[in-house]
Write a structure and sequence with these properties.
This protein is an alpha/beta fold. The chain contains 6 helices and 5 strands; from the N terminus they run αβαβαβαβαβα. Helices cover 42% and strands 16% of the residues.
Length: 142
């Protein structure tokens, strides 16, 4: 996604406002990107985007977000791989991760917990308000 496309979603670039909590959304589905980035920017979060796991991992290291919303099945590198790589880097190992996935299978939930996921959302079952509540829970946004 280009910077112009990102800006058209109504999200705020992390370079513009530095005192906002930074959320990194790593997701490859356009509908979810639009829905979450608009909602989170509207309630005062600084939202950055990555469209695949490899780009996401690079952005995690670059911006060190306060929280990550992470899809599991993506091109180039999946969410579980991103989490495993995060654990190898002390600087980013403890960033809270909320998984957003199409599945809520027990094996996937267990693997996410083992890798340190703070929480899990099933895409077909959540609304933006629920996402905002979970984010506030993990980064103490007032």
């Amino acid at each position: 996604m280009t910077a112009a496309e990102f800006a058209s979603l109504g999200a705020v670039s992390y370079n513009l406002i530095k005192d906002m909590e930074k959320i990194l959304l790593i997701e490859d589905e356009e509908l979810i990107i639009r829905l979450l980035s608009k909602k989170l920017a509207a309630i005062g979060y600084d939202v950055s985007l990555a469209m695949d796991g490899r780009e996401g991992l690079e952005k995690i290291k670059q911006i060190v977000p306060d929280l990550i919303l992470l899809d599991i099945v993506m091109p180039r590198m999946g969410g579980f791989e991103v989490m495993a790589e995060m654990k190898k880097d002390e600087k980013i190992a403890n960033i809270p991760v909320i998984i957003i996935s199409n599945s809520g299978q027990p094996l996937e939930l267990e693997k996410a917990k083992e890798l340190g996921a703070a929480d899990w959302l099933v895409k077909t079952e959540f609304d933006p308000k629920e996402v905002a509540e979970k984010i506030q829970k993990y980064i103490n946004k007032n």
